[in-house]
Amino acid sequence: MKELMGVINLDHELDQLNELTYFRCGAAVPFASRYRLIDFVLSNMMRAELESVGLFVRRKYRSLMDHLGDGKSWDMNRKHGGLFILPPDWNDPTDTSLGDLQHYHNNLDFFKRASAKYIVFSGSQHINTVDLQEVYQYHLEKGADVTLVYKKIEQLQPEHDPCLRLEVDEDRHVTEIHQEKDHPNVYLDIFIMEKKLFLEQVEYCIAHGESYFFRDAIQKNRHKFKIAAYEYTGYHAVINSLESYYKNSLNLLQQDNYFGLFKENPVQTKIKYEAPTRYLDSAEVSNSLVANGCIIAGTVENSVIFRGVQIRKGARIVNSVIMQKCVIEENAVIENVIMDKDVHLSKERILVGDSKRPFVIAKSSKI
């Protein structure tokens, strides 16, 4: 869609997943046995056929860059447009911009060179299957300056507490943006606005010493602009804490959640050519999500197993998330555990966490 370009802004997303974000930013955290959190927003943008996508990152982005490569997995390795990874590069000694406005100010050429007239902005913490083309058409029909995407949450959870909420009137216009914890209209960190208006507001915010675009250009000026609200009704999960990561990982073992995320909207990720998983005669696997390349000889129950994991005979994995290339030796027991990549657990070790606060093992540990 030549009328629309994308921006994925990771600058305001804190590394809140403890051991899982020691060596990577949150967007690069593995999820659902073979993906990274960044894959879901990129796949949404790929389906909308955006002209170009800019990814703004500030810290711990080596793992993310390795995963994304040239964007080929999302059909974004193009001669014109495509995926642009834009790390911080502050070379202008006269630059007075702050916060995420630094990214926008120091990459003005990215926006000006693009032929698109509108920009869709997104973070990576809200996993969803939003149809961005539909949001764009809704934005045009409403004649709005800005369109925000939200979901009405029937049962609020602790991970929703930090999220912004939207007050929406009967005409689907936003009347208030706040953080009242008991309000159900959760903002999904996705909005669309015209590129010309965006650039004008960037310049205005910098001139007035502001720091963050959404807060200072949109939230503070909600009465100045015509702000429309698009209600999304599909699958949604917020990953902004270790507890929310664990809970939403295991929630995918429920068919309704799994099909809601994957059935109608295939998610693209970095391609890795590995053999199918081998289940040996002693293997017992039930209600689990298992990626390819694994060798399983033990017992796996209600767990998410990533690529290339080896589970030896007699080992037992229950209610756990085991990431790439981990090795679980004979007769080891793991329950309510998140195990990061390349962990080696020796024979007969027992690791048990709490169902609401899992035990976490950092990347490349040997136990």
UniProtKB/TrEMBL annotation:
Keywords: Glycogen biosynthesis, Nucleotidyltransferase, Transferase
Keyword Flavoprotein: no
Taxon lineage: Bacteria, Bacillati, Bacillota, Bacilli, Bacillales
EC number: 2.7.7.27
Residue stretches making up the Nucleotidyl transferase domain: 16-155
Name by which UniProt lists this protein: Glucose-1-phosphate adenylyltransferase subunit GlgD
A single GO molecular function term of this UniProt record: glucose-1-phosphate adenylyltransferase activity
Domain Glucose-1-phosphate adenylyltransferase/Bifunctional protein GlmU-like C-terminal hexapeptide: 283-349
InterPro entries named among the record's database cross-references: ADP-Glc_PPase (IPR011831), GlgDAde_trans (IPR011832), GlmU/GlgC-like_hexapep (IPR056818), NTP_transferase_dom (IPR005835), Nucleotide-diphossugar_trans (IPR029044), Trimer_LpxA-like_sf (IPR011004)
Keyword flag Lipoprotein: no
Enzyme class, spelled out: transferase
Family: Belongs to the bacterial/plant glucose-1-phosphate adenylyltransferase family.
Pfam families reported for this sequence: Hexapep_GlmU, NTP_transferase
One Gene Ontology term from the biological process aspect of the record: glycogen biosynthetic process
